[in-house]
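Input record (Table S2, row 266):
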Amino acid sequence: MGETTHVVGSEIHQTDAVLFVVSAYTLSKGALKRLQAATAASTHLPTRLIRLEETGPSLIAALDELREDGYRNIRVQPFGTPFPESLLAWIPGVLADWQTRGQNADTTLTVGPDPSRDALAITQQAVSLLSDTMPPKPVSGIKPSLGKSGWNLPPDFEFHLLVCTGPRCAIHGAASFVHLLKEELAAAGISDRCLTTRTGCIYPCNKGPVLALYPQGHWYRLPDLIATRRFVREVLVEGASAEDLRFHTARAARAEIHTPQKEIVT
Ligand code: FES
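Output record (FE2/S2 (inorganic) cluster complex):
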């Protein structure tokens, strides 16, 4: 198994595998594969590349997999610019938490630098993009358009489901949750009554996977398939509230619940 060594101050850090992490809310499978191939070509060490939002293994799962494969000195390298500063601040704590689980203390983790600090690499990329190897394409002859005709009208729906697929919900399983939810909506025959929107962080990250339901204004934590099934059946189909899954009610909905009905004088 290959290894590289870095000396930082008086400490020696070894690396036997690199986990690249990117933050991108939308990324096609093709683009993800190209990034995986490009980062793999950057070092003789084994590499993985994951996306922190929505698809693929979470940061925790990717570390588990690398450890299962025998790697004990893993460098986690944020990749792509700009890389969100909030995630740069969050990642070290997640890594330290991972080390407290099971036998993971036998694995050394390091975190690579903020990619935006590497001004030379960014300039080199800009230079490369402007070089003749990838010439720009003219837009002459292309039909002027700000959007497709199907984008004129909002869809007709009864429930708006805002499903957080932010990186902190993803670490709690939000990636698989979105797919489960869509399957359950289809199985219940109510997909066309629901507009499901994937969102970035909506704040209560520790409760992830998080879903906000409107117009009800109720927020739910749906940690697994059983909870997701109950939410679809009890809340959306039967109109119940599934109190044990709900952890928050938006202000306007609270006001509606607590405002006493005016007495009707006849
Ligand atoms: S990442 Fe989902 S609430 Fe923050």
